[in-house]
Amino acid sequence: MESRISTWLWFESQAEEAARFYASVFRRAELGAIARAPGGGEPYTKEGQVLTAEVVIEGHRIVCLNGGAHPDATPNDSVSLQMLCADQAEVDAYWDRLCADGGRAVQCGWVKDKYGFAWQIVPEALPRLMQGPDRDAAGRVAAAMMGMVKLDVAALEAAAKG
User: Fold this and answer.
1) How far apart are CA 152 and CA 45, in angstroms?
2) Fewest Cβ atoms closer than 10 Å to its Cβ: which of 1, 33, 45, 58?
3) Distance between CA 2 and CA 16 in Å, rounded?
4) Which residues share a beta bridge with 62?
């Protein structure tokens, strides 16, 4: 079943650029529809101006909206996007792509992309180790994760083993 829920990200004017960037970052991503303003004298748009640009990542639809400058529309950490990765190579690839051209590493697997949006780049090992029956191992994994910037699968697995 296709999800009827989508995520909308507010941009001042870079919606199409951002959608194309995200489509280039992720392996299973594609650029979707680009909606342009019609003619007719709209007060805040010019004919042909991009209103929204969609990107579908791993089946999840993200709509990039050109909403103009607005003080309440600044990206912050209250909402983040998470990419669950199969292995360290995938973590490294997405991490590097999202940090490129003005993105920056944060901590605990979080990275801010060049537009300021927060992404959690998480290896599948993290939830598997954290949710396992050995609660002491989960505590060691959590402690190890808190000391990391980019998540390190080998170090997380070593922490679980003690």
Assistant:
1) 46
2) 1
3) 23
4) 7, 55
